């Protein structure tokens, strides 16, 4: 159920008029110390239960990690969102992208309310353009499309919120997902995703279990992502506090690929989602990145909604517990 789309493909906004459709844009950064951030801006993010039709439901998720723990976290609905000629406007935040001279650039100017005051700052991204991978399409007719937006690049992020601030610089990654059906109606029981930068090149793995199981690995070679047929073995299973099982080690082998992935303890966690720092070794060369686990069948369960609302900034009123979970140095980092 995953269609590979060309990096320069664009989403037709009309697909987001379909009930249950969603789209998100993903950016991450990791520095040489393992500190970093993940930023997702989206329409109808499927991890936010209770949202309405997609295009009118923008949201933004920002997590900053330092010293092996969450240092800032925010999951927030936004008042408005729109495509512009050069990028996106999400609430008071603006993202501008362009391509020139074989590179892709993105500048995000952030201005977002939190329970502890606005977080403001700038994220600047630069990375090499990728040629369309073999088999990639422009997205026409796709149900669930994934598009790497560039090769491994560099990013600088400077953010502040009250007396909290952070300045990060390191390797970065960008991609995009969109779907014309709800995530929990794709027949996916478990979705293990990860990326790493190894010797300046991008490596991505998509490991899906369910009605249409597949193990897909993409390796950056000569300016494009090549898909490699692989076999996967999970090692050293663990169970997280919310019941999700995850593997500390993932062994991936295929033609020209001998990959060992080591996933660290989750930094973000919940009953349907985990995010890990990862170490990867490909054919003897090591690199860093991020990994994620999603269990779509656990989304939007009635018993979960109060807990999700505790850490979600809503437009129509927030939980009294939100300040404990959101913003800089959250007091409760475990949900």
Provide the helix percentage: under 10%
Q: What fraction of residues sit in β-strands?
A: over 45%
Say how many strands there are: 24
- Radius of gyration of CA atoms, rounded to a whole number: 19 Å
Distance between the termini: 30 Å
Biggest sheet statistics: 15 strands, mixed
* Class derived from helix and strand content: mainly beta
Describe this structure in words.
It is built from 2 helices and 24 strands. The longest helix has 6 residues, at 305-310. It starts with a strand and ends in a 7-residue tail after the last strand. It has 335 residues and is mainly beta. Strand 15 and strand 16 form a beta hairpin.
Produce the secondary structure layout:
Elements: E1 3-4, E2 22-30, E3 36-43, E4 58-66, E5 69-77, E6 81-83, E7 87-90, E8 93-100, E9 103-112, E10 119-128, E11 144-148, E12 153-161, E13 164-179, E14 188-198, E15 201-210, E16 214-221, E17 224-239, E18 245-254, E19 257-263, E20 268-269, E21 273-282, E22 285-294, H1 305-310, E23 312-313, H2 322-325, E24 327-328
Parallel strand pairs: 1-11, 5-23
Antiparallel strand pairs: 2-3, 2-13, 3-4, 4-5, 5-24, 6-7, 7-8, 8-9, 9-10, 10-12, 11-13, 12-13, 14-15, 14-22, 15-16, 16-17, 17-18, 18-19, 19-21, 20-21, 21-22
